[in-house]
């Protein structure tokens, strides 16, 4: 290294001082943040994929429907993300959502305390998105929602993690006819008992590429009860993921409860009609008696190894969404959620016929007449 010495010595001392001052001045006060526990967090970079926010976030349920969008939004700004996983093949796609070394995986089991602690011990923010729409032979609603939350919250409290965000569900209530919603409410109370500054988030039924609302409507055959008159406030999954990111980085949200729902209250049948207008084809459904549908779903859920619904899911199809007026909303985060009509088309447009891919709804009749003279062969 001796051959570098003359070159370094040839730089005047005054010039070296100017260069050093320019480097120091490139860092601003906004790059430094202090967490609730007093830990300094320093960000660096221009604010993109290759930057670093200085924070570490753990996302339980990161490979689920909502979790994948949350991981993507955190990682794209350089937040180090820990993703606990159970199955190797279900989480690999998350690796490319962030720069090299940003998205990391930790194998865990909800009943293994050591694996839970290993997942959160180095984190500043912990999101719990774990949930189950139907019970299995290994995990009941209580096991996943209540006991799972209890173990995660204990690990968060043990290592003094600054922020804990518990993602619950709309209509979570202690006296709900649905066991799913009762256990979701109980999980909220457990989280608050262990970590008093827990932030509760209750998203409405979400719409996205992997959702269980539109995908169920456009699948065949589609079954429902109550003639699909359940009233909901659907919300875009992108809006919910962005709201969760804001909540995690904003310490003023500590201890609050947020209900994240869309601007309009519609029935499931109205959602179906929107899908039909965008896909330019009918999507009929079969209305079944509630008791029959519940019994058949529960029986199939016990003998089949893929998701087919359950009796509790049928019960939830008859519960109209209620809004808690005391909870905070998107407006308190400075956000305005999109309307269903603004984004539903992108999720059903590719189900159109090959002659209708670029057709506006107003010209459907004209294109149908053209089909009498156009023959497409492979």
Question: Would you mind describing this structure in some detail?
Answer:
With 378 residues, the chain is an alpha/beta fold. The chain has one domain: 3-Layer(aba) Sandwich (Rossmann fold). It contains 14 helices and 15 strands. The strands form 5 sheets. A 7-stranded parallel beta sheet has the order 5-4-3-6-7-8-13, with helices on both faces. Helix 4 packs across helix 5. The chain is globular, with a radius of gyration of 25 Å. The protein starts with a helix and ends in an 8-residue tail after the last helix. The N terminus is likely disordered.
Query: For the report, how would you describe the main beta sheet?
Result: 7 strands, parallel
The overall number of domains is 1
Mean pLDDT value: 88
pLDDT < 50 stretches: 1-9, 18-25
Portion of residues in beta strands equals 5-15%
CATH topology: Rossmann fold
The helix content is 25-40%
Query: Oligomeric form of this entry?
Result: single chain
Following the backbone from N to C, one meets helices and strands in this order, namely HHEEEHEEHEHEHEEHEEEHEEHEHHHHH
Gross morphology: globular
Assigned CATH class: Alpha Beta
Q: How are the strands of the largest sheet arranged?
A: 5-4-3-6-7-8-13
CATH superfamily caption:
NAD(P)-binding Rossmann-like Domain
Q: Care to count the β-strands?
A: 15
Assigned CATH architecture:
3-Layer(aba) Sandwich
User: In terms of structural class, how would the helical and strand content be classed?
Assistant: alpha/beta
What is the count of helical runs?
14
Task: Please state the CA-atom Rg, rounded to the nearest Å.
Answer: 25 Å
